[in-house]
Write the structure tokens for this entry.
Amino acid sequence: MTRYSLWSLLRHARKGHEHWPRAWRSPVLRSAYDIVIVGGGGHGLATAYYLAQEFGAKKIAVLEKGWLGGGNTGRNTTIVRSGYLQDESAKIYQHGLELFETLSRKLNFNVMFSARGLLQLAHSVHDLQEQARREQACRLNGIDIEMISPERVQHMLPEINLDGRFPVMGAAYQHNAGNARHDAVAWGYARGADALGVDIVQNCEVKSMVVKKGRIEALETSHGTVKTGRVGVAVAGHSSVLAAMAGFRLPLASVPLQALVSEPIKPVLNHVVMSNGVHVYLSQSDKGELVVGAGADQYTSYAQRGSFATMDQILAPLVELFPYIARLRMLRQWAGIVDITPDRSPIISKTPVEGLFVNAGWGTGGFKATAGSGHVFASSLANNRMHPIAAPFSIDRFYSGAVIDEGSAAGVAH
Ligand SMILES: Cc1cc2nc3c(=O)[nH]c(=O)nc-3n(C[C@H](O)[C@H](O)[C@H](O)COP(=O)(O)OP(=O)(O)OC[C@H]3O[C@@H](n4cnc5c(N)ncnc54)[C@H](O)[C@@H]3O)c2cc1C
């Protein structure tokens, strides 16, 4: 693998940048693997990378029905934070955030992680109370969050209108949260995994599963049959479809989640801003576009487009909060299909089928966990035992009642 550096850049510049090697191969699917990951989004690729890099697994394949990162990984609004209420959530999201901090160096690929700070606005006494409670819980878990006054919000976001229809009464501020470039995360993990011998096969759809005596034996794909005794499913909005192939159900609703970007403008926003009250979140990309995310649409669907009503519901309050946005043209709008659990926490778990593991239910907020989720899922697959950080996120919690309720922290998209 070519090491990306200033020297390799200069060397290739002399040759007109025409001889850069491909970042990853396009291998032909083999007939058998030790471990197969279904889904070439960030979670699947990170899992494959850590399996090979840290847990010494061999003969690994990632099967992706489309192109790498073409699912929610390439459609999200790139917010990375760890300010969740419950201890179990704090552990996994903080693990992910810490891995993000050194990921560019580790992968030798710039994932453009930018810890620019994140403000969650409070518009009511209820918001303030909920955020103060979460702030205390976060601090007990070593997460760096503080409540700040409206004056400090105004200082950090000079363009905000504090006294409009959605008054700003304060905010929870996480200093080390921010953004990363979503495609780069997928591409960096793909390049790293490929260099370690992982076969990443694109345009390869898993169509059905061969389960015998309760064990996974093979996958039927659009490229033929592949034998394997261990499978990790990381297909986000299509998790229920894959579970149905194996003969069980998951407690998930698959709904569209939308985002849009404005035309590029000069720097106006130094931080990430979220409002759970009006279900909108906003940041400015390095290209200058304002990236705006919405709340989930209110119906189940596998169509990657959302409703106009949801856009209307978030743009109206956004313009109240930041009046200058009314003068911007919006360039693109899109949606992804997110898989939402009843407690708004993910499922990282063994399944009723031996050898088949599932990593799902990240809903509206799994990008931030890409590294952490991939790491603990890889450990669980390699050792056939759930990693301690992953263990509480078992499917069994919906039978035992030990749910991890993140309705307040994750009920809004981000
Ligand atoms: C508009 C929007 C905004 C968001 N904003 C944020 C945010 O700011 N911060 C945050 O943390 N999270 C955010 N999210 C959520 C986040 O994007 C997801 O939780 C995360 O990217 C999921 O990653 P993944 O790898 O599990 O899924 P994906 O990236 O969706 O990858 C799954 C892959 O599986 C493939 N697949 C499906 N079925 C099959 C099959 N049968 N065979 C083979 N392959 C298959 C798909 O093609 C897809 O590429 C947002 C999501 C959306 C849609």
Q: What stands out?
A: The chain is about 30% helix and 25% strand. The first helix runs from residue 6 to 14.
